[in-house]
């Protein structure tokens, strides 16, 4: 059996990377490489190719900001992705999420290194105006 050759538009470079994935780039001289969606000869690639040749930048959305894992915000993010949180009932998840978001606003940038009982008691003491709810925070 012979392989059929697929014609590709000008300046399109197709190769297989070290992981076996096919990569497709527009590689015009004097311009940066622009990754194109695959597979080759699909409607999506022709649309992206036309935009790239016209000079429209194909910018992917920026990744979400990374949170340091040794901060309260990092711990909250890890918990929200955990199976324990996902297994909760929807009402419980919503309640936990509201409380954690409020806690993250106030204390998210603080590191957890050296955080102890006296710090917890100080935070709970500041919440004395809502005393009945402070037991449910932690």
List keywords for this structure.
138 residues; three-stranded antiparallel beta sheet; 2 domains; single chain; 3 strands; mainly alpha
Descriptive overview:
The protein is mainly α and 138 residues long. It folds into two domains: 12-54; 72-134, no CATH class. It is built from six helices and three strands, in the order βββαααααα. It has helices at residues 43-54, 72-80, 83-86, 90-107, 117-126, 131-134; strands at residues 12-16, 22-26, 34-35. It has a three-stranded antiparallel β-sheet with strand order 1-2-3, covered by helices on one side. A hairpin with a 5-residue loop joins β1 (12-16) and β2. α2 runs antiparallel to α4 (90-107). The longest helix has 18 residues, at 90-107. The termini are far apart. The model has no long low-confidence stretch (mean pLDDT 82).
Tell me the span between the first and last alpha carbons.
Answer: 67 Å
> How much strand content do the residues show?
5-15%
Low-confidence segments: none
Domain count: 2
Order of helices and strands: EEEHHHHHH
Average pLDDT, rounded to a whole number, is: 82
Q: Radius of gyration, Cα only, in angstroms?
A: 26 Å
With helices defined by DSSP (H or I, 4 residues minimum), what is the helix count?
A: 6
Biggest sheet features: 3 strands, antiparallel
Please identify the structural class as seen in this structure.
mainly alpha
Spatial strand order of the main sheet: 1-2-3
Tertiary shape: elongated
Q: Specify the helix fraction band.
A: 40-55%
Report the strand count.
3
């Amino acid at each position: 059996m012979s392989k059929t050759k697929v014609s590709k538009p000008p300046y399109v470079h197709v190769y297989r990377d070290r992981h076996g994935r096919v990569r497709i780039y527009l590689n015009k001289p004097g311009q940066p490489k622009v990754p194109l969606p695959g597979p080759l000869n699909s409607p999506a690639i022709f649309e992206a190719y036309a935009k790239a040749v016209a000079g429209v930048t194909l910018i992917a959305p920026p990744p979400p900001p990374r949170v340091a894992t040794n901060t309260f915000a990092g711990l909250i993010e890890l918990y929200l992705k955990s199976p324990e949180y996902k297994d909760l009932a929807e009402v419980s998840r919503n309640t936990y999420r509201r409380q954690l978001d409020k806690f993250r606003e106030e204390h998210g940038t603080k590191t957890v290194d050296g955080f102890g009982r006296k710090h917890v008691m100080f935070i709970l003491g500041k919440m004395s105006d809502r005393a009945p709810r402070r037991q449910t925070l932690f």
